Amino acid sequence: MKLKYILFSGLISLGTGLRAQVLPYKNSQLPIEDRVRDLVGRMTVEEKVGQLSKLLGWEMYEKDAAGIRVSEKLKDAVKSQHIGLLWATLRADPWTQKTLKNGLSPQEAAKVTNAIQRYMVDSTRLGIPLLLSEEAPHGHMAIGATVFPTAIGQASTWNPKLIKQMAQTIARETFAVGGKNGYGPVLDLARDPRWSRTEESYGEDPYLVGKMGEAMVKGFQGDRTRKEDRIIATLKHFVAYGVPEGGHNGGSVSIGERALRQSFLPPFEQAVRAGAGSVMTAYNSIDGIPCSSNPWLLNEVLRKQWGFKGFVVSDLLSISGLNGSHATAADAIDAAKQSIEAGLDVDLSGSGFGNNLLKGVKSGRVAIQQVDIAVARLLHQKFSLGLFEHPYVDENLVEQKVATAEHRAIAKQVAREAIVLLKNEKDLLPLSKSVKRIAVIGPNADNMYNQLGDYTAPQREDKVKTVLQGVRATVSANTHVDYVKGCAIRDTSATDIASAVKATESADVAIVVLGGSSARDFKTSYQATGAANVESGKESVSDMESGEGFDRATLDLLGDQLPLLKAIVATGKPVVLVTIMGRPLNLNWAAEHVPAIVNAWYPGQEGGQAIADVLFGDYNPAGRLPISVAQSVGQLPIYYNHAKPKHHDYIEFEAKPLYVFGFGLSYTTFAYDNLQVAVEKTNDDFRCSIQFDVKNVGDRDGEEVTQLYVVDEVSSVVTPVKQLKGFARQLIKKGETQPVVFELTKEDLKLWSADRKWETEKGRFKLLVGSSSDDIRLEGILVLEKNYTL
């Protein structure tokens, strides 16, 4: 009996020892490279290929009266495809057919992602957690999350510090419910506002876009040493996606390597060097090579020259586009082969790689080493996120991390700082809060979805503050506020201008809220990529005139908006025009006839109150345009930093835009003085200090956005007529003077030479300091006496 006990005890000890022996890839004390190597070595070819597939996530859970659980579709995908990632699991919108009723609250979302990860850890051979990617460009695109202004509004703040704080908030909310990868920032230069996705961009200038993108990446990711509340950023869309011919979304682009190097690539390089963990390829081609199969772009530039260590993901179905719309691959296997050999690691859809890549490997058309490299890149990010140690989120903390009062306050501040005052004739603004009667008119005055932009989840009605609500909350109790919609954005079947005119005639001032909309509805049909289909001849016409897929041939206000505005102005009452829109629209008539114009882009959930704060003087606006506002589509492209020579006027009107890049007014006035330029030179670099004073000479405290532009007077290759090289937004109290300092080094003045290398050439550089790209207050000169290499 004693012998049996000893033997039994020995077996227990042996079993305990075996269980205690942690496999190398599960040992968090080992270097990540060792863990990746061990795990890849244990995987079958099917598991490796499957790890690179990112499927549509909103199909992977079930919610009904019985509760929340993983779906049979997930179980089948894991069993048959060995998937490694999901996209937009928590997304809700008309495309996904997820509503406030059948979608997920934040608390339910955390339960779903935990259930999914628990299934992966407990029910798969190797227990590899999924990387859950979520749309997060202006807030997590999930029910209950905070909705911030879209990117074009974020850029109008000219405040990277605030945008970093916003990005930290988005990361915190996304992380809280299980998302570990946020899609954003969008770093496309928007130089043709006919393009439907202008609202998702930071505008037309590479320097401003780069600063905003860097802020987003640092806000999302932090320094990556702290895992909680941090998510991987995915940079979109690599590269030159925002300048399609004719403004056609996803269309071909016509740019050369020099333009690519000097304008379109720098924002991505800046974000990569800030530590971005993921990059998404664009749908378009560059000089005949699709971005999803471009080895020069993905391997030479991105990895070799910039040192990118993350993974590259396709845009939805873009691998399939190689043997589809691009017609550069003979079949689906060839498309998979071209993409993975070019350096594309992850397939968003699961149909581009999957069986096609597996067949390619097994037939010898694709080397397994190519698959191993891609898998290693993805696994490295999973390990660095701590997914293997902490695959689950704390469901009890969701309420403390999502849609908090602090987050709403940040959303309001971003909306306030994004507002651009375009015109204020005879100081009509700010309005008095005690005015007796106000008429609030227009299709965007009380429509919450029209002020949120594309990539936005369904919202509770009490969550979003419209302009009408903001006005009513701001004015005195004795002020009467009338509201008349007047017309829709596009639909002309229910226009009621007469009622709007009647309300205005009885009012002391009219606030007219016009513009555009990216609000998707359940009547719209969508492409497989998620872009909306533009359909004409339908009985019911949606407001949507912007957002992915809604490209424009003109930039005019649609529907009966301009007739409505003209009728209101004709009453003779003071009129304030507020524009809520996703792209710069034609404001020529308004600029000539309306005394005050305020542009808010898509200001997010707190936008209505932010606009009211500006209209009634609780906030002094200081937003600046990140994109030029054209007088006509015939001027396009009209970005300020075009290549020399300077544009000459047209027969019909001048060449300059209606409102220039960097423009924006204030309720106070600033004076610039005392420019000093000092240069310290070393053998391999220089440091040029540009210092000047800015004084608030008005009667209100206010913020000024000072801007530094540089002109390379003589260069070996053609350079822009001027280039933004510095900006600063700062509060200056009335009567006060504050110094501003900018610094330039050889990195700031480099050009891509005729010898195809970076150089900063000797010569004269004109330094322009001012309040916009054409409001220059001070000028200086920098002279370099030698060339500098980079």
Automatic annotation (TrEMBL):
InterPro entries: Cellulose_Degrad_GH3 (IPR051915), Fn3-like (IPR026891), GH (IPR017853), Glyco_hydro_3_AS (IPR019800), Glyco_hydro_3_C (IPR002772), Glyco_hydro_3_C_sf (IPR036881), Glyco_hydro_3_N (IPR001764), Glyco_hydro_3_N_sf (IPR036962)
PROSITE patterns per the UniProt record, alphabetical: GLYCOSYL_HYDROL_F3 (PS00775)
Entry-linked Gene3D superfamilies: Glycoside hydrolase family 3 C-terminal domain, Glycoside hydrolase, family 3, N-terminal domain, Immunoglobulins
KW Hydrolase (keyword) present: yes
One GO MF term attached to the UniProt entry: hydrolase activity
SUPFAM superfamilies linked to this entry: (Trans)glycosidases (SSF51445), Beta-D-glucan exohydrolase, C-terminal domain (SSF52279)
Source species, domain of life: Bacteria
Residues of the signal peptide: none
Domain Fibronectin type III-like as annotated: residue spans: 704-773
Keywords linked to the UniProt accession: Glycosidase, Hydrolase
Record-linked SMART domains: Fn3_like
Family (UniProt): Belongs to the glycosyl hydrolase 3 family.
Name by which UniProt lists this protein: Glycoside hydrolase family 3 C-terminal domain-containing protein
Originating species: Sphingobacterium arenae
Lineage start: Bacteria, Pseudomonadati, Bacteroidota, Sphingobacteriia, Sphingobacteriales
